[in-house]
Amino acid sequence: MSKLNFLQPDKNNLNTYLYTGVILVAFSIFIVFLNSFFNKDIVSFLPGPISFFLPLILGFIGLHLIRIDYSGLKFLDKVNKNINTNNFNAFLSLLIVFVVIKSLPPLLSWFIIDANIAGDSKDVCTGSGACWTYIKIWFNRFMYGMYPNPEQWRINLSFIALAFLGCVGFFATEKFKKYLTLYYVVVYPIIAFFFIFFFISGGPIFFDFSYGIIAAVISIILGFFIPSKFKMYYFIIVPITLYILLKYVFFYEELIELGKLEALEWVETGAWGGLSLTFIVSFFCLIFCFPIGLFLSLGRRSDFPIIKYISIGMIEFWRGVPLITVLFMSSVMFPMFLPEDMFIDKLVRVIIAISLFEAAYVAEVIRGGLQALPRGQYDAAKSLGMGYWKMHILVILPQALKLVIPGIANTFLALVKDTPLIFVVGLLEIVGMLNLAKTNPEWLGFAMEGYVFASVLFFIICYAMSKYSYNLEQKYKTER
Amino acid sequence: MSKIIQITEMNKWFGDFQVLKNINLEVEKNKKIVVCGPSGSGKSTLIRCINRLEEHQQGSIIVDGNELTEDTKDIEKIRAEVGMVFQQFNLFPHLSILDNCTLAPIWVKKMPKKEAEDLALQHLEKVQIADQASKYPGQLSGGQQQRCAIARALCMEPKIMLFDEPTSALDPEMIKEVLDAMVNLAKAGMTMIVVTHEMGFAKEVADEVIFMDEGMIVERAETKEFFANPKSDRTKLFLSQIL
User: Fold this and answer.
1) Residues on chain B touching A478 (C-beta within 8 angstroms)
2) β-pair partners for A429
3) What is the enclosing helix (H) or strand (E) of A341?
4) Cβ contact (<8 Å) for B156 and A385?
5) Are A479 and B103 within 8 A, CB to CB?
6) Mutate which of B77, B87, B92 to disrupt the A interface (most A C-beta within 10 Å)?
7) Which of these CATH numbers, 3.40.50.2300, 2.60.40.10, 1.10.3720.10, 1.20.120.450, describes A120-147+269-480?
8) Any idea what the Cα angle at residue B80 is, between residues B74 and B85, rounded to 5°?
9) Which residues are CB-neighbours of B202 under 8 A, at least 6 positions away?
10) pLDDT truncated to tens, each residue of chain A (480 aa)?
11) Do B82 and A383 touch (CB under 8 A)?
């Protein structure tokens, strides 16, 4: 056995160093653990500063002792490589472990141990923890805003239907894959628009449109099974027939007048709110701002001066003004310029405003991707006889958009998190509803729970989006 | 024999700098022309003008009976008849080799997909990379990529092929495989204009060699004549340096 040198641990006395080191590290973590979870300081006999730093010192020495290169133990090598490469990293690793252990008990007790969820009034919330009862009672409002309770099935049904229609891509056979882009870019948004604005909104206008939606949806779904030879005739004849059948045979309007069927009650957009409104606003803004941004970015690179300067003007204008003023203008100033009898719904105005605002950002992100492409790609596409649109759709945009997926995801995430600003025009999505609920005299003092709840929801939404964007990146990766 | 390319009195400027000076060039059908010269002499610009990747400011260029003008519809038609191979290959990295080759026939010539794929495989076979058809450009070596680029251009069944220094970006051992593909193409009777420094290739297949310097055509001669008795001093100097 060679001589022990504690300043330079080596492989020869591996076990000695390993046991000493592990015991020291484990002991240091144990001290912090006891201190944090059971409030016991077992080293309190030492003077103050030393007892405070003791775990750190012990752990540091321990990590130093087990830092042995090529020890032959797989686990030890892995630990050394990942958290224990040098003194500074060892110190940081220890610090992080201690901070996590230290901060767990208060978090746990606030979230779970001392929290209340039973009961249905604020009286049950006596502990020092969170009052989840508050969230439970207000849950419905946080999800649907002021939307009348008996009508909420309409929102649920619309979202479920749209989710199903959104999944069509997974089930389409190889033959219909090429129509998918068209479906998602044109057909799906239109269906969604009708669903949201005529089904959720309801009112007398609903029925005519609902026939249209049902006819369109049924014919599209059936359309996937029709041989392409008859497609032309099919898409002219079937939707119209369906529409007429629905209007005059199945949903015979007399039934409504006789009281056997009731028309959907009209719910004005001011009453919409909560998370469902967050979804609606984000969804429409996302699908509108992308194509607008795309055209602006192409316009900015156009050879025609008029198109170019209009695009530049649009982009710079929308990027130059704060969103909150845009929203305010859209609700207060914009109606003044409209003719007296013309009325555009508040929500529609908001969606247009946010879409244009975000489109400017999307445009610049896409322009970055367009500029990153080598000129040779344009040359090659042109030399094969492609015109402007073919070149862009087939060659340039697929590559440019692939490059800017992270940037676009960034913009979209920012958009989702910008939606709470629509409170300035009186639309209360989830954060707006929280602000409303926290000022309710019966439920004062639970702002914290509300914001934590909203943060968790937003995090879930945004993390899902970010994961999805990462998946897209991987899917379209064609480099070696 | 018919003249497939006719360039008369053509001038081109980049800003204030005149890159092409008074170019007169006629190319007959099925001829193979090699363009050589020092870098910056305007060789690439000249052949890029032939399918209007660059615009000329004066003079006229007539390709296969169509004059190159501002009218974009005509230009797209001419470009579909003039294949081009670039120094940097310029394959479309987001598409597989097969899709690279079928993209233009399907979307520009409106060829049915099946037919386009058969045609593409046929041309890929000719340049000996049919077995790589399902890979992406990023997975191939430079030589393979350049051969794919040749096949891609051939899939449009062009009447003229332009080569813009096709071997300059390749490792020495890959140059041969690309040159072989070009030699085969030449033997099949394609009209070719090749900008290259590969004098071996020029000697083997070219009917005529053009020497350019400072934006002008200094000398144009039959291949044997060009290498045996260069006329101008500038050509002699160039040949003595390159051979």
Assistant:
1) 93-94, 136-138
2) A274
3) none
4) yes
5) no
6) B92
7) 1.10.3720.10
8) 130
9) B34, B36, B194, B196, B209, B223
10) 566 777 777 777 778 888 888 999 999 999 889 888 888 878 777 777 888 888 888 888 888 888 887 777 788 888 888 888 888 989 999 999 999 998 998 888 888 888 888 877 777 777 778 888 888 888 888 999 888 888 888 889 889 988 888 887 777 777 777 777 778 877 788 788 877 777 777 765 556 666 777 777 777 777 777 776 676 677 777 777 877 777 777 655 555 554 444 566 778 888 888 999 999 999 989 988 999 999 999 999 998 999 999 999 999 999 999 999 999 888 887 777 777 777 778 888 899 899 999 999 999 999 999 999 999 999 999 999 998 999 999 999 999 999 999 999 999 999 999 999 999 888 888 999 998 888 888 888 888 888 999 999 999 999 999 999 999 888 888 765
11) yes
The residues, any chain, with a CB within 8 Å of residue B89's CB and separated by 6 or more, are B137, B142, B145, B146, B148, B149, B169
d(CA B126, CA B124): 5
- The number of beta carbons lying within 10 Å of the beta carbon of residue A40 is 11
Distance from CA of A399 to the nearest CA of B (A): 6
**Dihedral, A116, A118, A120, A123 alpha carbons, nearest 10:** -50
Determine whether B45 is exposed, middle or buried from the number of CB atoms within 10 Å of its CB (0-12, 13-18, 19+): buried
A386 interfaces chain B, CB cutoff of 8 Å: yes
Tell me the chain B residues in contact with residue A384 when contact means C-beta distances shorter than 8 Å: 79-80, 103-104, 108, 152-153, 156
Residues of chain B in contact with residue A402, where contact means CB-CB under 8 angstroms, are: 94
Residue A287's Cβ-count burial label (10 Å; 0-12, 13-18, 19+) is middle
User: Taking CB atoms and an 8 Å cutoff, what residues of chain B touch A376?
Assistant: 86, 88, 90
Q: Following CA atoms B225, B227, B230, B233 in sequence, which dihedral angle do they give, to the nearest 10 degrees? A: 170
Residue B74: what are its φ and ψ, rounded to 5°? -65, -40
- A382 chain-B contacts, CB cut-off 8 A: 51, 53, 79
Contact B148, B93 (CB under 8 A): no
Give me the DSSP letters along A30-55: HHHHIIIII---TTTTS-HHHHHHHH
Measured CA to CA, the distance from residue A38 to residue B227 in angstroms comes to 95
Distance from CA of B33 to the nearest CA of A (A): 19
Q: Could you give the CA distance from residue A205 to residue B1 in angstroms, rounded to a whole number? A: 74
CB contact at 8 A, A137 and A120? yes
State the smallest CA–CA distance between residue A466 and chain B in angstroms. Answer: 22
What are the boundaries of each domain within chain A?
14-113, 120-147+269-480
Scanning every residue of chain B, which has its alpha carbon at the shortest distance from the alpha carbon of A475? B94
Q: Measured between CB atoms, which of B76, B138, B153 is closest to A387?
A: B76
DSSP character string of B125-193: HHTT-GGGTTS-GGGS-HHHHHHHHHHHHHTT--SEEEEESTTTTS-HHHHHHHHHHHHHHHHTT-EEE
Strand partners, B5: B27, B63
CB contact under 8 A, A377 and B83: no
| Helix H or strand E encompassing B93 | none
- Residue at token pair 């490059």: A403
Amino acid at B202: A
**Best mutation target, A373, A379, A383, A404, to test chain B (most B CBs within 10 A):** A383
Which residue is associated with the tokens 């044109």? A186
For chains A and B, CB pairs below 8 A equal: 75
Q: For residue A398, which residues of chain B lie inside 8 Å, CB to CB? A: 94
Kindly state the tokens that stand for B3.
């003249």
